[in-house]
Amino acid sequence: MSGGAIDQLDGLGPASGDDPIRLADFEALALAKLPAGSGAYYSGAANDEVTLRDNVAAFDRWRFVPRIGVEIQGRDASVEVLGRRWPSPFMVAPMALHKLADPAGEVAVARACADRGLVFCLSTVGSATIEEVAATGAACWFQLYVLDDEGRNRELLDRAEASGYEAIVLTMDAPILGRRERDIRTGFARPQEVEYANIRRGSLKRGDTYGDDEFKSSNTWDDLAWVVAHTRLPVVVKGVLHPDDAVRALDLGAAAVDVSNHGGRQLDRSIAAIDALPAVVDAVAGRAPVLMDSGIRRGTDVLTAVALGAQGVMLGRPILWSLAWGGEAGVARAFDLLAAEVHLALGLAGLRSFGDAARDLLERVPG
User: Fold this and answer.
1) CA distances from 226 to 97, 229, 257, 287, 339 (A)
2) pTM for this structure?
3) Phi, psi (rounded to 5 degrees) for 168
4) I need a surface site. Which of 139, 164, 165, 332 has the fewest CB within 10 A?
5) Are 313 and 72 in contact (CB under 8 A)?
6) Pick from 320, 328, 331: which is nearest to 43 by CA?
């Protein structure tokens, strides 16, 4: 993206008055196009959706204390995570069934990532195969839900390694599903033409979220130790909210942790991810990268997370909404809007790079 487009969001302005100009705009546009069940599946969360709302609202509890007198021309939004430098501090979180939004599904999102040098994380319950996503040329991570069958787990890990994936993301906060009442109200069921591409499918299991493969009914530290022992790739533990869990994960061989409450889809009234982040960062004490997801909607959200100690953030629902709105081009627009906001936030905060972001950039306000 040129410096002019970075500094002036006018370069990404709408082609018409109906086009999105911020990530949050994609939701209503997507819901107008999607079947009610698919829209509810993407946008909904557990129970009363308190955590879903708080994930976004929690960012508003932080205020910037920007610096002045800084030369901000030529500022650099890149970050280093797991030994590689990425052009922006955001990546795509693992999410199920992208083909509910667009026939190209995960492949379309991965192509947009490849064009911009961003990480795409494929879910175990994705609707494109490990190999199809790898063929896009994107930098890929693979998210694992642990199955009861160790042989099947090993097969998924081996396929990811063989396809050139760069990390394994082990999700540990979803051994059983939260009660997602929007799905119940709409009677959501996976359309027959949208398949789980990497696991066995057939009779309904766990509310038709996964398919025939049996998922473990608990996720333990033994599972993490097993995954670390059975892959050569770095393992990121996803779903960390308590600082002691972050330390335990690193002690067992995790290469990074992801502070996340699963987008509010598991235990409702869990702490907002951005509120959990500082204590986890303090507990990790620089031993490994800390990522976070859940609630990112603005470039200022990204800057807040990095100032609180995250090395990067994962984007969830806005990517699905942008995919539903405009396919691969819609996802590209979402990425470019957020990248432009990130660069603008850096400059207005008086920073040349994310390496200059620290907690003294922020103050927490009451309420």
Assistant:
1) 27, 5, 17, 21, 37
2) 0.92
3) -110, 130
4) 164
5) no
6) 320
Q: Which CATH architecture has domain 20-353?
A: Alpha-Beta Barrel (3.20)
Scanning the chain, the segments in alpha helix (DSSP H) are 3-7, 25-33, 36-43, 50-57, 105-116, 130-134, 150-162, 181-186, 221-229, 243-251, 273-284, 299-307, 317-348
Q: Is 262 a catalytic residue?
A: yes
* Each residue's pLDDT tens digit, 262-285: 999 999 999 999 999 999 999 999
Q: Which amino acid is at 19?
A: D
Q: What is the pLDDT of residue 217?
A: 85
Among residues 98, 230, 242, 262, the one annotated as catalytic is 262
In the chain, domain spans: 20-353
Q: Which residues of 174-211 are buried (b: 16+ CB within 10 A; e: fewer)?
A: bbebbebbbbeebebebeeebbbbbbebeeeeeeebbb
